[in-house]
Write a sequence for this structure.
């Protein structure tokens, strides 16, 4: 990975469902704990309103979106911004592989929700590694 | 119980980058879940751009209150751009100026003090909801 290059991890804001909070929590886990050296986060809403500085950043740096639901707001906002979307993850896909996990809560996730966020974060971290390798 | 037909949309910024964004999100949920559950709905701001025609139409027909974490005012700008002028706008940093002892730090897991601050913000939103619905202050709902 060249210097001054980092991967943007962009979660959906998903305020109406637990899976939105899972998406957000997974993103924090990646940028603060799992891959802090290579990743950063940005506000999805800045893309929605077309903030020039943020648009420039997502065009220059690789992006990974995390969406809570099939509306895929994070993915669609990055694409509409002509961002360098390298990978798009969907929380419901991870949930499909872990049907025993029952996430609940929006303000505060239950332990199962936190477990799901950790599982999603691991998938995101793998995606980050692939992007870093690809960027050389 | 009489049916309440009027609804107010609360549009929160996503604010993933800053603790104020997390406060915005928590305050919005507190209004929806506890303070004004029958009178409010929330709208995902990024859905405005991602093709949420229902969200755009709702925000055109019903009053909205935008809640922003910072001076970039994404919720206010996004709502105005895709739907219509919000009934009221609230910016967390403005409320913070009235509470100089509050020090927001966490984006992920708010402290007890941060959560209390979110409750204060939620009360401000609830007041605006009542104004939007043309109500006098209802002490029973406080």
């Amino acid at each position: 990975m060249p210097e001054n290059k980092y991967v943007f991890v962009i979660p959906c804001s998903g305020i109406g469902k637990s899976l939105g909070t899972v998406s957000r929590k997974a993103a924090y886990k990646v940028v603060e704990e799992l891959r802090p050296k290579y990743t950063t986060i940005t506000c999805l809403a800045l893309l929605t309103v077309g903030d020039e500085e943020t648009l420039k950043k997502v065009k220059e740096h690789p992006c990974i979106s995390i969406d809570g639901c099939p509306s895929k707001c994070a993915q669609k906002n990055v694409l509409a911004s002509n961002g360098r979307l390298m990978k798009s993850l969907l929380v419901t896909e991870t949930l499909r592989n872990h049907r025993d996990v029952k996430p609940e809560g929006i303000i505060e996730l239950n332990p199962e929700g936190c477990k799901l966020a950790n599982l999603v974060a691991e998938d995101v971290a793998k995606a980050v590694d692939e992007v870093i390798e690809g960027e050389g | 119980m009489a049916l309440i037909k009027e609804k107010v949309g609360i549009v929160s910024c996503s604010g993933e980058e800053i603790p104020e964004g997390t406060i915005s999100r928590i305050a919005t949920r507190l209004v929806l879940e506890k303070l004004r559950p029958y009178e409010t709905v929330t709208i995902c701001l990024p859905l405005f751009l991602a093709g949420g025609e229902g969200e755009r139409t709702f925000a055109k027909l019903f009053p909205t209150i935008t809640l922003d974490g910072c001076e970039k005012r994404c919720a206010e700008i996004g709502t105005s751009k895709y739907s219509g002028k919000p009934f009221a706008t609230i910016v967390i940093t403005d409320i913070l100026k009235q509470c100089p002892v509050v020090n927001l730090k966490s984006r992920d897991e708010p402290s007890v003090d941060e959560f209390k601050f979110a409750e204060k913000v939620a009360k401000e939103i609830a007041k605006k909801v009542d104004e939007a619905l043309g109500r006098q202050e209802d002490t029973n709902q406080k």
